[in-house]
Inverse folding.
């Protein structure tokens, strides 16, 4: 599925580039002087895949949270974009607590767009996992009736960010990320970026606590293309690849209640992502959809791999309006103290 999607994006990318002439693409409509509110709905859920053995005797364990649909609300003004994400209980697939356990998800993120840089900062808190592929682990297990093995106290907290730089000055990545701009002519750009995070894994089983700290960083390169197929409609594919490092440090609680020795590990990580965005834009209303995939993997030991892969869809709808006087006035006060804003 992911391979076919990659090839589709690549073909569309090169067809788009060859089909467009080098018209004047400096015509970018900016909406920085308006407040924009967006509602987003997506199926990007947390899951981890642990694989052991060779290809012929591969054993996989998939940990997932009991939330299949995520909602988020974004507010944009000037060069700042802020988003709060959560998982509403009333959405289908978010409330099978009896069999899969109770999960919680919260994500705060901020994006800044100073000149040709894109700076992202976020905090994510996820708690409550279950083994999704029980049928692979227990013969005779029934999906519609039998309970899942649950880890209600497994918690993942992440403090992270990324720093990107747009090589083509005539290309608007803000058009694709937050719809804070509208690029009137088709154009693409290479975008190198760094990503980094500090993640805390904690769990309690039978009164025994364990905690692991992870430091992750990566260097990536991606190509983004904005194909304007009509005055108010665009199609935008992208692909990224990257390599990074992972440093872990953990201690387990022994049966006598004391902490075991500290253990440190280092890994090389491989990353990839891609997607396709289709959107409609007017001065006030905007809406669209995205299909994305993310893939991260590293070899924990020989014949043992940990992956965090997912393919997900996203729908969004937004509205722009002039800022209230109090917002405009307070922003100008802050801008005097922080000129970069």
């Amino acid at each position: 599925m992911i391979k076919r999607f990659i090839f589709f994006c690549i073909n569309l990318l090169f067809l788009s580039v060859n089909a467009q002439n080098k018209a004047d693409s400096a015509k970018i409509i900016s909406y920085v002087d308006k407040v924009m509110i967006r509602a987003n709905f997506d199926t990007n859920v947390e899951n981890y895949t642990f694989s052991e053995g060779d290809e012929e005797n591969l054993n996989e364990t998939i940990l997932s949270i009991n939330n299949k649909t995520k909602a988020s609300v974004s507010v944009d003004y000037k060069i700042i974009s802020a988003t709060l994400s959560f998982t509403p209980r009333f959405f289908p697939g978010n409330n099978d607590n009896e069999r899969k356990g109770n999960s919680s998800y919260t994500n705060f993120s901020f994006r800044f767009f100073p000149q040709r840089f894109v700076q992202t900062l976020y905090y994510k808190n996820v708690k409550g996992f279950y083994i999704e592929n029980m049928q692979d682990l227990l013969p005779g297990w029934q999906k519609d009736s039998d309970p899942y093995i649950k880890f209600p106290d497994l918690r993942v907290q992440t403090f992270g960010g990324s720093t990107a730089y747009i090589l083509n000055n005539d290309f608007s990545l803000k058009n694709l990320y937050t719809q804070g701009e509208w690029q009137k002519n088709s154009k693409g750009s290479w975008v190198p970026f760094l990503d980094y995070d500090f993640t805390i894994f904690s769990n309690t089983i039978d009164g025994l606590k364990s905690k692991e700290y992870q430091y992750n960083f990566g260097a990536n390169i991606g190509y983004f293309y904005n194909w304007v197929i009509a005055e108010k409609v665009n199609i935008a594919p992208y692909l990224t690849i990257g390599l990074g490092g992972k440093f872990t440090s953990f201690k387990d609680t022994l049966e006598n209640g004391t902490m075991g020795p500290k253990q440190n590990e280092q890994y090389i990580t491989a990353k990839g992502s891609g997607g396709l965005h289709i959107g409609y834009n007017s001065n006030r209303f905007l809406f669209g959809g995205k299909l994305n995939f993310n893939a991260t993997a590293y070899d924990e030991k020989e014949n043992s791999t940990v992956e965090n892969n997912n393919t997900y869809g996203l729908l969004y709808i937004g509205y722009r309006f002039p800022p209230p006087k109090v917002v405009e006035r307070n922003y100008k006060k802050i801008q005097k103290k922080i000129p970069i804003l």
